[in-house]
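lol ok so funny story. i was supposed to be doing the assay writeup but got distracted and ended up predicting the structure for this chain instead. priorities right. anyway since i did it might as well share w the group, maybe its usefull for someone
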Amino acid sequence: MSTFDPNKLSVTYFNGVTKDKPVFQRYYTLTHSDETGELFLDIGPTYRTEQIDAQMRDEVLGYWVMKKGCLFFHGYVYVSGGEFNKEVSKIRYDVFRRELPLALTAIRYGDQHLFDLYPQLDEATICMHFQSVYPEYHGVQCWGKFKDYNVLNHSARSVSK
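and the output, tada:
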């Protein structure tokens, strides 16, 4: 896992979403620059699709959902829709799995004001959806809770999958 550097994270709130509200209809788009290592977190009422590199598709997307009284964070990563062969898809899958702790830490840190206002968000289960045409790289995995990625209280740790 790459080390999270808060100085390399830029956060943008857009279209009426603020540091305080809303919790629901709050969508996260996390992208990055391979050249500089900078991370860009856009938080708004929709995904920031214009920030997504159509060739690379290495973004992390997510949103909050309440199901049967339980709060969840649903995240999405795009592994392959058929444009990558199985070997490249495996590499992409492995990279996503290696870098997801960094991405989740960036989301937690970048939206820390909301987590401070609503501490129950730290207890939300993180469900990551890996999207691929190859069954072995497709599916939903539990990635712990956001408290596992809070660098303000302790170092983010890897969560067993």
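The chain is about 20% helix and 30% strand. The first helix runs from residue 86 to 110.
back to the writeup now i swear
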